[in-house]
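**Discrete fold encoding**
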Amino acid sequence: MTLDRAVMMFAGFMVLASLALGFYVSPYWYLLTVFVGLNLMQASVTGFCPAAMAFKKLGVKPGQAFK
């Protein structure tokens, strides 16, 4: 798995988890969905992605987007 796919999978998992938590636990968990969306938009503009940095330190091989 490349770094690009790992970041997209992590973001998708976080969105689905926050939606489930928001539905079953508390609506405040929907703020996590907002945070993930804003972070994805910010990363597309600036190229800075904390999740990509973390996965890179874990040894995930780089893809095309995050080098």
Summary: The chain has one domain: 3-57. The mean pLDDT is 93. The radius of gyration is 13 Å.
